[in-house]
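If you are new to this repository, start here. Below is one unmodified record pulled from the training split, so you can see the exact layout before writing a loader.
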Amino acid sequence: MKAVEQKYFDQMGEFATTESGRQVFRHMDIINIKTGSLLTHVSLMTAALGLFASRFIGELNYSLFEILILVELVVYVLISMSLLFCINITSPSTFYSNGNLQDGEYFAQRIVVIAARRRRIYNVGLRSTVGISILFLLTLFLKIGGLI
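And here is the target side for that same chain:
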């Protein structure tokens, strides 16, 4: 296992000294920071919806408002679960299946794929969060207006 760990850190260090390596790691750092901020918003919305759910939902006969609150709560939890992948650190098992040590070129290709996947997940999470936040505001306005 120590050989795999050593190989992993050696290849990470070699890749980090290249221009493309610096750009990929910088890109991953930015995704981590943005994901952390988005997770903060998602966590606060999950807490707020949890309070709404505990306050307004009591019987098994759900109104439209209660159903919307529950759906929004579940969507926020799913968004947070997917965003957690974006802040997950890489490990040797990410790059070396069954203990097979790959060359540095494989490492570089694999980390670029991981960075691109994290960016896609972040972008989907961001769009989903904006959409579900708008739905939450509409739900509140409709409830306040007495329409639901």
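Two things worth knowing about this chain: The chain has one domain: 2-144. Residues 2-144 form one domain.
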